[in-house]
């Protein structure tokens, strides 16, 4: 059996970009993409996506619900560069220009299970008040040259950001062969649930 | 409070009087229409008070109303103190006015008789009552009865009220006036009366305490009451007779003018000033303010208080008594630091809304069995419980216990002293010291005897001195010891005597202790002798000492005496002189005090008196030593004594003994703070000893953290008390059962016990004396004797938890682990220091106490043990390393990971590093290791030339150092790198954008829009394409028409010419038909090759073809790395080759001509254009007409010499007569060029040190800013960065430099030719763009000598060198910074000839006239001369349209002007260039090697065909090449052709010479490849290849390669 000595481990993520709360804005859509290290490679599914435009719900919470599914499988040889999901939310401004309403990123959870993550979203600030006005007027807000910037640390010190709202994601994470390769990411009590012992008992 | 109230009464009374007055008027009016009725009566009561009898009014004031709604109420407490008095007053005034207003309003409502719905807010007090928190129940209860009682007499009411008052009082929270009280307060008159006087104290007492807190609430409540009152008033009016309103007058509100009020206020109120208080007022007199902050002490930030408020506060405080205590040393109000944190410490809560949802949500959690994984456990694999700790508790002795009698106390003291005595006796230090003293004396004796001594005199003397000092010390020690012994003995005897007396006194004995003093007889005579001898010896020594001292002092005395004498003499002389002087002029006498003090006449030291010393010694001896003949006393303590039986003891003692018997003691054993076992409870013996003798075997899992014994005492059957805790040390691992000694651990308790019997208690003072003096306080204390050891298993293995367990790193183990012992050494580490210390302190090696130390030292000094001579930092690091460093470095995976993170080029983009070492191939590292190895080895294979190899190596090193220098800067980001932000538009852009709104959506003439740029991050192979648009060409060489003299039917000549004429005229009638018309033909097509991908256009016709085709070539980045830095370093070139397509008729048989066509297509290379990819990358697009690089000899082709334009400079003409091609090249998608990076780097570099004057640098910045403002697109360069990274002013690069003398000698008379030759020489230096060599870094300028040494450089270096040569040739020359095609921003050289300007391309050596349309230089930004910079401020920047006269300030803005004169900057260039002659032999060798390599390559490129070499032709060509070099390709074509024709008549010949500067072999190969010579697949083709290298000085090599293919004609 080839699985006896695996050389890669797999990380399967599915879930959804569930909803977001942007108190000041409406009619937003979001993009997501994954940022991962050099030792990672997507195997199946989509690592990028763009959602429909959602309007605010009428109830008190005024949440924007996308329920936009994520389904991607990675393989890797190294936990370094563990995938992060980068969300960027866009929507029209007063003049109808599409402007960015928030960036946010979060690591995919390490251990298998179901997770609900709420990530704060932020946008880069204009460098001056005048810039702010003109960017508002022109409909070209400052935005990151690449949304993936928010998943890395390098160069962030030069930016100033303002928070805008929150997005909620749901992850269902499954890993394969991670423990066989010596990485124990599960909760503390599950150490002994190892694969090989089960088939033996079945054989008897 | 009370007194205040009374003082204020006057005021109040006044107010009340006023009120009363007004009310009395009203009352009189109301009196008549008064109708009986409960409601009305009540309301009247409540409103006006007792209506009829003013005398009886007073009691009413104090009646509480029975209900809230009606009935009289008593006066609520008046919260009036002197502080609030005025406010109260005005408040009341206002209240009254409001009341009146409400009343009148109600009246008017009533008059209209409209039952207006009551405003909601005005609820009746009763309604409200039910809601108020106080006094609801009783008031309601009473309400019912009250309605009946209302009409009854006042007394009743009064009684009732008082009852009620009590009740309500108990209910209302203290300090809150009830509603009624409040009501009454506003309604009733306040007449001072005797009863009020009575009542008030109680009221005030009740409320006074709370008054202050109330003040705020009062205000609010008052407002409520206003409504109540209003309501009440309404009620009253409703119940009133309709006629009643007649009696109500409406009056204007009383008004008191502001001025008067202010006056009044001034009397009463103190308004603190807002002015700043001078500091001296705030501080005590004569104290300077002290600022702690200035003294460097930390002072927290004071809370923000407005300056105004602060001043007010300070002024107020100063008015107060002892107000100064509020001020600190610095004269400011004392304040704590601001407690407000700058940031909230509580994390924000996002999920407030989600929380209820989250509660409902169910989460799936897999059921898992919890495995206990406590870290303290021994690894689960081991069988647990194998370890055992044995604790042996043998017993307990109290050294003090509450039940001790006095005798016991003494007994324990005695026992202690005796123990001490025994210990001392065992050591017998005095004896030892005496012996030592004796030995030392002997040593001195022997030392003094020179005969016996073998040592030299010096050493003996020092030895003796040492001995003597030793003797002195030892003697002192011995005396002290002996004295101690003696005092101890005395103490023992004293205590024993005390005990005996106590026993006698109390007439019973409690303890069996008995001291026996044994006398040891001594021989009196011998003893006396010894005593005397000892004393004598001591005296002698002392005398000796004193003598020494005396001698020393005497010496001192002598010298000082000498000095004194000398001084005296001098004085005398001086005096004499003075006297004489005084005699001469007596005025000065005595006016001169002696400047120095008179030295004291030294006193000679007195010799020591022997008698005194003897006396001293004897005294001491008597004091500390046994007298001679006195027997030695040896105390012996026994337990042989009898204790008195109970019957004979007094009652208290019996009680004590019974109490002792009732007491029992047990011990608890606590392991890691958990009780594991306890001993049996044992009765306390009469001797206060408890014997347990129990051994506890602890089976343990954990490494013990603590072992504790708890001593519990039980008295009778009652309580158990914890006496003390004893902490046992955890045994060493070497300590096992059987070997462990019994140890005693002391404990003590702090409990206080007083007993009613003979027991002395604990922690309680008691005394032995009858008068109670000399009190003692003793605490319960004792000793536990125990032993702790590790058990031994069955097979003799100690059951100790493995040692490694301690080092795992959990907290407790770390706490235990000694930092030093954990690294292998323990205790003192520096043995050398220890040994040194031992030597210095003269440790006695014979002292048994020092034995282990001496042993250690001896081992250390003998060097047997390892002494580390280092100090270890991070001792614990090793504990945390999870593998050793060697192991880590051996791991291939780790190595790969670390190399990748270091961004080593080979591994920078390594993806998916395998997870196991075994999956990593060794060969992954091979390249890298090879490169590392070769770094220092000059590799000659690629370079063929040693010099070039060294240069390449040097270049590599420079590059590495520069790259390293900028590695950090590379990771430095600017905002623009991360955030895309629109720039602030100026008005014009705004206007334009507004204008754009009105623009047509689909204009008829669309304008090009910029393409979207792609960041080079998410690209992969095949994403990027190179688009080459071939539009048209001009002046393509045409096949030469057959010249008449060759036009003979001779086979040989025809065949030779045929390929060039490209017309099989003899055979093809169709073609031969062309010739008569002399219609020459060329069928050119363009082939573009890039990265070995080839595309070509269709074939066009004629010398000016138009293709207009777009070719697409894929681009592949090296290592699949599409980062900016990597793209910049792509060295590939785009070759655009122009070929002529020639059709050959290969039909063998003429007869078949009618039925078939059999032709072969051949292509002839005409020329090429080479564009480096880096240029395209930086320019993003290349658009223009380029000169085609056509070989100087192109056999069979000629240019149509119908050029019309006459050039000014005649040899410029021939060069301009080239062929041109119009191209458009770009990259799809457009990549973000690395421009910002370069700018940023240069910014960074500016911050590097510069040796330029700071002023100059500022001026350059200013100049550049000004220029950029006017013409943002024109290049302006003032400073550049030299090769060492420093900023240098640009003119320092320009200086006349001598060209190689060989070149000057070629044409000594022809300056034009020389100029051209020099330009050629410069152009022969290989071109290497900076952006390639310093990928992504910046433009570095090297000086000309560096450039010549490196033999590589870009446009700037070429231009600088050329310009310098021109200057040295005496020309006027400038550096031109501008834009050219295809280079982009570049540097050219402008030279001024007699009447015109020439523009030189330094890289090609070509020159252009100013008005040459095909000049590649398109714009001119600035000119740089050796002493100035001129910026082009003309309207146009094309060289065609500008004036190069720099003296005109309107056209050229100069850097140095009158305001900033040229400071005479020294040049960075060398004084003179030194040229070495090139080694001819090496060149010849290189030539051969290149030829060989090229031949091999051509054969490689033709894998399917045989490649034959025509040696004959090769040698012909080889001869021809030097000719070409000398003539530079001019006017040799004809001769050459003739020559070839002569020699190779039988062949159809196609070939051309290529000319290049030599840098490396690779470009040569590429160039040959791009011509496509090898592509001929005619079976009988032969090739010829000749290489010629012409050496120029300084290793500049000009390479000629002649490639030809020959086809033998049959």
TrEMBL record, chain A:
The stretch of residues making up the signal peptide is 1-19
Q: Where in the cell is it found?
A: Cytoplasm, Cytoskeleton, Cilium basal body
State the PROSITE patterns in the record.
C2_B9
Gene Ontology process terms (BP): camera-type eye development; cilium assembly; embryonic digit morphogenesis; in utero embryonic development; neuroepithelial cell differentiation; regulation of protein localization; smoothened signaling pathway; vasculature development
Q: Which Pfam families match?
A: B9-C2
Q: What keywords tag this UniProt record?
A: Cell projection, Cilium biogenesis/degradation, Cytoplasm, Cytoskeleton, Signal
Q: Does the keyword Cell membrane apply?
A: no
- GO CC annotation: centrosome; ciliary basal body; membrane; MKS complex
Just give the chief location class: cytoplasm
- Assembly and partners? Part of the tectonic-like complex (also named B9 complex).
Q: What does this protein do?
A: Component of the tectonic-like complex, a complex localized at the transition zone of primary cilia and acting as a barrier that prevents diffusion of transmembrane proteins between the cilia and plasma membranes. Required for ciliogenesis and sonic hedgehog/SHH signaling.
What name goes with this protein? B9 domain-containing protein 1
State the encoding gene.
B9d1
From TrEMBL, chain B:
Q: Recite the UniProt keywords alphabetically.
A: Coiled coil
| Bias kind Low complexity: ranges | 1061-1071
Instruction: Give start-end ranges for the coiled-coil region(s).
Output: 423-484, 525-563
- The gene name on file is Cc2d2a
Domain spans labelled C2: 1008-1186
Recorded hits in Pfam families, A to Z, give: C2, CC2D2AN-C2, CEP76_C, CEPT76_peptidase, DUF5523
In terms of PROSITE patterns, this protein maps to:
C2
Entry-linked Gene3D superfamilies: C2 domain
The segment annotated Disordered runs over 1-154, 195-228, 568-645, 1045-1071
What is the species listed in this Swiss-Prot or TrEMBL entry? Jaculus jaculus (Lesser Egyptian jerboa)
Return the GO cellular component terms, semicolon-separated: MKS complex
Compositional bias annotation for Basic residues: 16-33, 568-579
Q: Does the keyword Repeat apply?
A: no
What name does this protein carry? Answer: Coiled-coil and C2 domain containing 2A
Q: For this entry, list what GO says about its biological process.
A: axoneme assembly; camera-type eye development; determination of left/right symmetry; embryonic brain development; heart development; kidney development; motile cilium assembly; neural tube closure
Basic and acidic residues composition bias: residue spans: 90-106, 219-228, 616-630
Give me the segments passing through the membrane: none
Acidic residues composition-biased segments: 584-597
- Record flagged with keyword Coiled coil: yes
InterPro entries for the chain: C2_dom, C2_domain_sf, CC2D2AN-C2, CEP76_C, CEPT76/DRC7_peptidase-like_dom, DUF5523, Tectonic-like_complex_comp
């Amino acid at each position: 059996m080839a699985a006896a000595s695996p050389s890669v481990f797999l990380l399967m993520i599915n879930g959804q970009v569930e909803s977001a709360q942007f108190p000041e804005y409406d009619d937003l859509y979001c993009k997501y993409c994954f940022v991962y290290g050099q030792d990672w490679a997507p195997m199946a599914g989509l690592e990028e996506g763009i959602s429909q435009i959602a309007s605010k719900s009428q109830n008190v919470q005024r949440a924007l619900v996308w329920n936009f599914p994520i389904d991607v499988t990675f393989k890797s040889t190294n936990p370094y560069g563990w995938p992060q999901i980068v969300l960027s939310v866009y929507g029209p401004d007063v003049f109808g220009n599409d402007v960015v309403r928030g960036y946010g990123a979060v690591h995919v959870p390490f251990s298998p299970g179901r997770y609900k993550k709420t990530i704060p979203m932020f946008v880069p600030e204009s460098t001056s008040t005048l810039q702010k006005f003109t960017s508002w007027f022109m409909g070209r807000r400052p935005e990151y040259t690449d949304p993936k910037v928010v998943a890395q640390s390098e160069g962030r010190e030069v930016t100033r950001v303002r928070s805008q709202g929150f997005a909620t994601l749901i992850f269902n994470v499954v890993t394969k062969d991670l423990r066989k390769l010596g990485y124990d990411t599960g909760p503390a009590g599950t150490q002994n649930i190892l694969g090989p012992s089960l088939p033996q008992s079945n054989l008897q | 409070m009370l007194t205040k109230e009374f003082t204020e009464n006057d005021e109040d009374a006044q107010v009340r009087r006023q009120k009363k007055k007004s009310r009395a008027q009203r009352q009189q009016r109301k009196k008549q229409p008064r109708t009986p009725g409960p409601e009305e009566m009540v309301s009247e009561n409540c409103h006006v008070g007792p209506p009829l009898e003013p005398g009886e009014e007073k009691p009413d004031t104090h009646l509480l109303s029975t209900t809230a709604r009606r009935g009289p109420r008593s006066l609520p407490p008046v919260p009036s103190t002197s502080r609030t008095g005025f406010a109260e007053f005005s408040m009341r005034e206002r209240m009254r006015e409001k009341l009146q207003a409400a009343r009148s309003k109600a009246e008017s409502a009533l008059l209209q008789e409209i039952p207006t719905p009551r405003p909601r807010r005005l609820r009746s007090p009763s309604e409200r009552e039910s809601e108020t928190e106080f006094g609801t129940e009783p008031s309601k209860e009473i309400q019912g009865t009250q309605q009946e009682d209302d009409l009854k007499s006042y007394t009743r009411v009064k009684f009732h009220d008082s009852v009620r008052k009590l009740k309500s009082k108990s209910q209302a929270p203290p300090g809150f006036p009830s509603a009624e009280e409040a009501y009454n307060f506003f309604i009733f008159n306040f007449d001072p009366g005797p009863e009020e006087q009575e009542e008030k104290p109680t009221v005030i007492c009740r409320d006074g305490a709370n008054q202050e807190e109330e003040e705020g609430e009062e205000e609010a409540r008052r407002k409520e009451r206003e409504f109540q009152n209003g309501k009440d008033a309404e009620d009253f009016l409703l119940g009133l007779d309709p006629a009643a309103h007649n009696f109500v007058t409406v009056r204007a509100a009383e008004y008191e003018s502001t001025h008067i009020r202010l006056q009044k206020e001034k009397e009463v109120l103190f308004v603190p000033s807002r002015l700043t208080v001078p500091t001296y007022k705030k501080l005590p007199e004569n104290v300077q303010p002290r600022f702690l902050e200035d003294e460097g002490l930390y002072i927290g930030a004071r809370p923000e208080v407005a300056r105004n408020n602060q001043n007010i506060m300070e002024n107020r405080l100063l008015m107060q008594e002892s107000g100064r205590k509020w001020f600190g040393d610095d004269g400011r109000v004392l304040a704590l630091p601001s407690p407000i944190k700058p940031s909230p410490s509580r994390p924000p809560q996002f999920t407030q809304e989600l929380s209820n949802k989250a509660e409902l949500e169910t989460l799936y959690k897999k059921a898992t069995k919890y495995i206990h994984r406590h870290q303290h456990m021994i690894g689960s694999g081991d069988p647990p419980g194998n370890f055992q700790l044995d604790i042996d508790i043998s017993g307990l002795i109290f050294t003090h216990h509450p039940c001790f009698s006095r005798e016991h106390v003494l007994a324990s003291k005695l026992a202690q002293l005796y123990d001490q005595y025994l210990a001392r006796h065992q050591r017998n230090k005095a004896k030892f010291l005496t012996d030592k003293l004796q030995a030392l004396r002997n040593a001195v004796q022997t030392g003094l005897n020179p005969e016996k001594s073998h040592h030299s005199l010096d050493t003996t003397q020092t030895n003796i001195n040492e001995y003597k000092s030793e003797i002195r010390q030892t003697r002192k020690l011995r005396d002290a010891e002996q004295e101690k012994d003696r005092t101890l003995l005395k103490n023992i005897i004293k205590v024993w005597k005390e005990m005996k007396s106590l026993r006698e006194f109390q007439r019973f004995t409690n303890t069996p202790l008995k001291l026996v003093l044994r006398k040891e007889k001594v021989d009196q005579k011998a003893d006396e002798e010894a005593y005397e001898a000892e004393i004598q010896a001591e005296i002698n020594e002392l005398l000796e000492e004193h003598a020494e001292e005396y001698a020393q002092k005497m010496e001192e005395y002598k010298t000082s005496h000498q000095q004194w004498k000398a001084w005296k003499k001098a004085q005398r002389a001086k005096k004499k002189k003075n006297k004489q002087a005084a005699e001469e002029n007596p005025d000065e006498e005595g006016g001169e005090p002696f400047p120095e003090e008179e030295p004291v006449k030294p006193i000679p030291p007195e010799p020591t008196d022997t008698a005194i010393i003897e006396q001293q010694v004897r005294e001491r001896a008597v004091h500390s030593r046994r007298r001679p003949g006195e027997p030695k006393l040896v105390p012996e303590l026994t337990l042989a004594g009898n204790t008195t039986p109970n019957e004979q003891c007094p009652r208290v003692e019996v009680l004590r003994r019974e109490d002792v018997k009732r007491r029992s003691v047990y011990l608890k054993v606590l392991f890691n703070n958990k009780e594991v076992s306890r001993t049996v409870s044992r009765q306390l013996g009469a001797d206060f000893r408890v014997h347990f003798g129990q051994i506890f075997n602890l089976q343990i899992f954990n490494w013990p953290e603590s072992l504790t014994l708890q001593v519990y005492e039980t008295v009778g059957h009652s309580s158990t008390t914890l006496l003390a805790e004893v902490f046992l040390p955890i045994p060493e691992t070497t300590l096992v059962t059987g070997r462990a000694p019994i140890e005693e651990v002391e404990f003590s308790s702090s409990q206080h016990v007083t007993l009613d019997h003979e027991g002395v208690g604990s922690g309680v003072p008691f005394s032995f004396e009858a008068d109670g003096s000399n009190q003692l306080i003793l605490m319960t204390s004792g000793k536990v004797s125990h032993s702790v050891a590790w058990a031994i298993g069955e097979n003799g293995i100690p059951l100790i938890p493995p040692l490694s367990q301690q080092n795992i790193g959990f907290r407790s183990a770390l706490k235990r682990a000694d930092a030093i012992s954990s690294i292998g050494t323990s205790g003192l580490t520096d043995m050398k220091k220890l040994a040194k210390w031992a030597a210095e302190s003269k440790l006695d090696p014979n002292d048994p106490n020092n034995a282990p130390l001496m042993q250690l030292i001896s081992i250390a000094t003998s060097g047997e043990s390892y002494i580390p001579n280092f100090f270890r930092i991070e001792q614990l690091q090793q504990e945390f390393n999870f593998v050793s460093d060697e192991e880590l470095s051996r791991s291939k995976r780790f190595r790969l990971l670390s190399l990748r993170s270091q961004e080593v080029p080979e591994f920078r983009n390594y993806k998916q590093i395998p997870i196991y070492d075994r999956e990593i191939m060794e060969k992954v590292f091979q390249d890298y290791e090879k490169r590392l190895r070769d770094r220092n080895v000059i590799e000659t294979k690629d370079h063929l030339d040693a010099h070039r190899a060294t240069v390449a190596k040097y270049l590599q090193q420079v590059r590495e150092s520069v790259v390293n220098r900028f590695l950090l800067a590379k990771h430095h980001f600017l905002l623009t790198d991360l955030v895309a932000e629109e720039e602030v538009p100026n008005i014009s852009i705004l206007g334009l954008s507004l204008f754009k709104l009105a623009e047509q959506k689909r204009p008829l003439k669309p304008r090009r829009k910029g393409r979207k740029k792609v960041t080079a991050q998410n690209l992969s192979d095949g994403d990027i394409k190179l688009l080459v648009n071939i539009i048209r060409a001009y002046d393509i060489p045409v096949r030469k028409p057959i010249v008449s003299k060759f036009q003979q039917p001779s086979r040989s000549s025809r065949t030779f010419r045929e390929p060039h004429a490209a017309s099989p005229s003899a055979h093809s009638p169709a073609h031969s038909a062309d010739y008569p018309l002399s219609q020459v033909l060329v069928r050119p097509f363009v082939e573009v090759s890039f990265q070995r991908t080839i595309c070509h256009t269709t074939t066009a016709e004629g010398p000016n073809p138009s293709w207009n085709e777009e070719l697409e070539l894929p681009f592949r980045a090296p290592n699949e790395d599409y980062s900016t830095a990597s793209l910049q370093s792509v060295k590939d070139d785009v070759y655009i080759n122009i070929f002529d397509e020639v059709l050959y008729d290969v039909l063998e048989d003429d007869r078949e001509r009618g039925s078939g066509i059999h032709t072969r297509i051949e292509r002839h290379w005409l020329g090429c254009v080479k564009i480096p990819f880096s240029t395209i990358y930086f320019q993003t697009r290349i658009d223009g007409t380029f000169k085609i690089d056509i070989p100087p000899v192109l056999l069979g082709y000629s240019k149509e010499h119908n050029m019309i334009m006459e050039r000014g400079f005649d040899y410029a003409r021939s060069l301009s007569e080239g062929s041109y091609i119009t191209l458009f090249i770009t990259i799809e998608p457009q990549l973000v060029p690395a421009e910002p990076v370069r700018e940023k780097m240069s910014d960074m570099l500016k911050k590097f040190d510069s040796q330029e004057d700071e002023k100059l640098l500022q001026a350059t910045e200013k100049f550049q800013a000004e220029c950029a403002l006017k013409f943002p697109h024109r290049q302006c360069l003032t400073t550049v960065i030299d090769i060492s990274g420093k900023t240098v002013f640009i003119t320092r690069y320009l200086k006349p430099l001598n060209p190689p003398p060989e070149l000057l000698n070629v044409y000594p008379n022809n300056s034009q030719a020389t100029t051209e030759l020099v330009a050629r020489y410069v152009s022969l230096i290989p071109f290497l763009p900076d952006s390639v060599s310093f990928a992504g870094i910046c433009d570095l300028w090297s000086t000309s000598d560096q450039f010549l040494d490196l033999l590589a450089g870009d446009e700037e270096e070429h231009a600088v060198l050329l310009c310098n040569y021109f200057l040295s040739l005496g020309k006027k020359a400038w550096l031109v910074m501008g834009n050219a095609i295809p280079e982009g921003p570049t540097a050219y050289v402008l030279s001024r000839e007699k009447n015109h300007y020439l523009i030189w391309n330094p890289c090609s050596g070509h020159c252009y006239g100013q008005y040459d349309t095909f000049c590649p230089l398109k714009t001119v930004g600035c000119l740089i001369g050796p002493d100035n910079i001129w910026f082009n401020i003309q309207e146009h920047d094309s060289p065609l349209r500008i004036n190069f006269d720099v003296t005109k300030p309107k056209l050229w803005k100069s850097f140095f002007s009158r305001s900033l004169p040229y400071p005479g900057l020294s040049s960075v260039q060398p004084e003179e260039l030194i040229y070495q002659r090139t080694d001819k032999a090496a060149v010849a060798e290189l030539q051969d090697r290149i030829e060989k390599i090229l031949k091999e390559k051509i054969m490689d490129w033709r894998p399917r065909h045989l490649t034959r070499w025509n040696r004959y032709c090769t040698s012909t060509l080889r001869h021809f090449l030097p000719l070409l070099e000398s003539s530079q390709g001019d006017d040799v074509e004809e001769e050459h052709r003739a020559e070839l024709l002569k020699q190779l008549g039988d062949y159809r010949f196609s070939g051309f010479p290529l000319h290049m500067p030599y840098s490396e072999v690779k470009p040569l190969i590429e160039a040959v490849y791009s011509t496509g010579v090898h592509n001929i697949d005619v079976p009988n083709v032969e090739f010829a290849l000749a290489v010629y290298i012409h050496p120029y000085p300084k290793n500049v090599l000009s390479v000629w390669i002649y490639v030809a293919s020959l086809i033998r004609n049959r």
